Amino acid sequence: THWLSCMACSSLGAFPALSPLPLARAHGKSFAHRSDLRQAKRILVKLGSAVVTRGDECGLALGRLASIVEQVAMLQNQGREMMIVTSGAVAFGKQRLRHEILLSQSVRQALHSGQNQLKDMSLPVLEARACAAAGQSGLMALYEAMFTQYSTCTAQILVTNLDFHDDQKRRNLNSTLHELLRMNIVPIINTNDAVVPPPEPNSDLQGVNVISIKDNDSLAARLAVEMRADLLIALSDVEGLYDSPPGSDDAKLLDTFYPGDQHSITYGTKSRVGIGGMEAKVKAALWALQGGTSVVIANGTHPKVTGHVITDIVEGKKVGTFFSEVKPAGPTVEQQTEMARSAGRTLASLEPEQRSEIICALADLLTERKDEILSANKKDMEPCANQTIFSPLNLSIGLRQIAVSSQDSVGRVLRRTRVANNLELEQITVPIGVLLVIFESRPDCLPQVSALAIASGNALLLKGGKEAANTNRILHELAQEALSIHGVKDAIQLVSTREEVEDLCRLEKMIDLIIPRGSSQLVRDIQRAAKGIPVLGHSEGICHVYVDHEASVDKAIKIIRDSKCDYPAACNAMETLLVHRELLRTPLFDQIIDMLRTEHVKIHAGPKFASYLTFSPSEVKSLRTEYGDLECCIEVVDSMTEAVDHIHKYGSSHTDVIVTENEDTAEQFLQQLDSACVFWNASSRFADGYRFGLGAEVGISTARIHARGPVGLDGLLTTKWVLRGEGHTAADFSEQGSMTYLHENLPVAQVLPGRRTTS
């Protein structure tokens, strides 16, 4: 039996049972996917009391309310039709009445008893309907004042459950709301708590005789369907619906809830306020969904997300629980991640020969099924003229190199220490865990990264670009076929659902490392989105070639041509050429310029270079530019030291090159420059995992920790400490203990999973 729990905002009990649905909307059913919510035109936002009121339920949460008003006004000004169903009149009125009572009592007691007895005053119990009557006008005045700041007009509508028994009143309400929306006015709807019936026993604020101010869920659902709203956003004081009580160890937020799921759910406890539980909320949401309105239940009280929770939902981001009538055929991305982690642990426990066998099987499949692969790739290429065809044969060769290098990857002993007699410590290599690799249009990335993940014992979640969907699908099938040899098929998963990259980056409890493969913009976007998950990569590849005044003419021309022209879009292509000042107006400099012109490279002049020229090329807008094309910047420096300073200031710590015949100058450059890759008399294009002999790479990292430069197999491993003793305790080594630390370094021997070393 599953559990589902959430602090409730309302109950259906305050209204009569929901009547048969009105006629279905002409434009059809509710949205099937979150991404479709961007199309929502008419939106109803329901604000529960926990959202509108302060924690003491006496007064309004003005900060939250202001941010919600700002979001609603912004969406209204975008051309959407916004409606609000709000609570809060009772809380606002309670605050006003308590203030008046305290003021009145203090005056009376001061006259009769003196100031010393003011502290003994007690507040009388406030009747809820009186609080509602006193607070309704103030609540509406506050809304009006806030919306006025955004040039948005509002109108108040009060209803009771009796209004829905009268067909004429219902038609009048419907007509009024439509007319307000037509005039671009935001209707603010609330139950008329000043005249509603008393609450049911044991269903109110604990110890306080007030009727619930959180009875608007069914009202919101009813109005959403009657008004044919596209979306109902119900804001509450929890994240959404959970598969077990929130706070329990295994509780997981349900991203999507389907109508059939409620039959296998046991509902948890209700909110600290309100007369209903989550069961009432779910019933109201499902009723609205049946009537053609999409529903999202989300948290409107969290200080970090309140300021954009409504706009995030409308943008289709994974916020709260989305109600959908369309259940996907395959597993969710969360389920895929769990499957991958479980199978990945089994993969890591295999013998190295078994992992190598899987990679070789994948290499064989690439050649055996190459016609099938190329056919799928051809389909992907048809709408994209610039799509790159790749060679399954070349991929197969690279994978076999990885298979060989995987023999001593996982379980390799890096350090052995005899801590004390019969107490030995080892540091060994282990997989990182679950990797999320997000790549754009190049499908050859999939088998390369898959092989590296298999070799390192990591689980892998892949998100490819839609431009190569057919090729990715067949390559993933081959990877899983190879994994099946040793029963770990699920260790590699291809995300084929309509998941946004930003949503994947929020799975911080499930993913251990994100590796973006694509444009610098993709990397930057992922680095911004992945707040809780490390990202391995670089956002820019601003690579420099510095030509020293003692450089060889032939080497300089050859290296500059290769660094810039071999593949201009690569992250390791030269973007800035630094030239020693003494080379200006020399044959070497003229040959460099002639070569670049011959190769159709557009030149941008740096500030110092431009100052030496009468008629200069276009002056560079920024010295920190990654062109990614047949363009580059040329700048002049006075020395090798100035070149290093320039690179430190404007570079991206990726790959930088010096061309010189002076060994001392070269060594100083190599030592002083703080980049991931630093070369002497070699093209920047060598910054590549395959060219380094790593077999393949998952990317190039400019980070300062873990992996740096081209990241191959070793970059996908971390370490753990293994201590083997015979009943040792820390107390044995205290002043009163009988043992002493030895801390002797022992020879490192290879340890494979399941085996133990001997000293």
From TrEMBL:
Give the record's keywords alphabetically.
Amino-acid biosynthesis, ATP-binding, Kinase, Mitochondrion, Multifunctional enzyme, NADP, Nucleotide-binding, Oxidoreductase, Proline biosynthesis, Transferase
Listed under GO cellular component are: mitochondrial matrix
Output the InterPro entries linked to this UniProt entry: AceGlu_kinase-like_sf (IPR036393), Ald_DH/histidinol_DH (IPR016161), Ald_DH_C (IPR016163), Ald_DH_N (IPR016162), Aldehyde_DH_dom (IPR015590), Asp/Glu/Uridylate_kinase (IPR001048), G-glutamylP_reductase_CS (IPR020593), G5K_ProBA (IPR041744)
EC numbers for this chain: 2.7.2.11, 1.2.1.41
Q: What are the residue boundaries of the Aspartate/glutamate/uridylate kinase domain, all occurrences included? A: 41-299
Q: Give a yes or no for keyword Aminoacyl-tRNA synthetase in this entry.
A: no
The protein's annotated pathway: Amino-acid biosynthesis; L-proline biosynthesis; L-glutamate 5-semialdehyde from L-glutamate: step 1/2; Amino-acid biosynthesis; L-proline biosynthesis; L-glutamate 5-semialdehyde from L-glutamate: step 2/2
Q: Does the keyword Metal-binding apply?
A: no
Q: Which Gene3D superfamilies match?
A: Acetylglutamate kinase-like, Aldehyde Dehydrogenase, Chain A, domain 1, Aldehyde Dehydrogenase, Chain A, domain 2
Ranges for domain Aldehyde dehydrogenase: 332-608
A Gene Ontology molecular function term for this protein is: glutamate-5-semialdehyde dehydrogenase activity
Q: Which Pfam families match?
A: AA_kinase, Aldedh
List, in alphabetical order, the GO biological process terms annotated in this UniProt record.
L-proline biosynthetic process
- Provide the protein's localization: Mitochondrion matrix
Please tell me where this protein is predominantly located. mitochondrion
**Reactions listed under catalytic activity:** L-glutamate 5-semialdehyde + phosphate + NADP(+) = L-glutamyl 5-phosphate + NADPH + H(+); L-glutamate + ATP = L-glutamyl 5-phosphate + ADP
**Family as reported in the entry's similarity comment:** In the C-terminal section; belongs to the gamma-glutamyl phosphate reductase family. In the N-terminal section; belongs to the glutamate 5-kinase family.
PANTHER family this protein is in? DELTA-1-PYRROLINE-5-CARBOXYLATE SYNTHASE, GLUTAMATE SEMIALDEHYDE DEHYDROGENASE
Assembly with partners or alone:
Can form homodimers/multimers.
Stated role = Bifunctional enzyme that converts glutamate to glutamate 5-semialdehyde, an intermediate in the biosynthesis of proline, ornithine and arginine.
Q: What is this protein called?
A: Delta-1-pyrroline-5-carboxylate synthase
What species does this protein belong to?
Cyprinus carpio (Common carp)
| Top-level taxonomy | Eukaryota, Metazoa, Chordata, Craniata, Vertebrata
Gene expressing this chain? aldh18a1
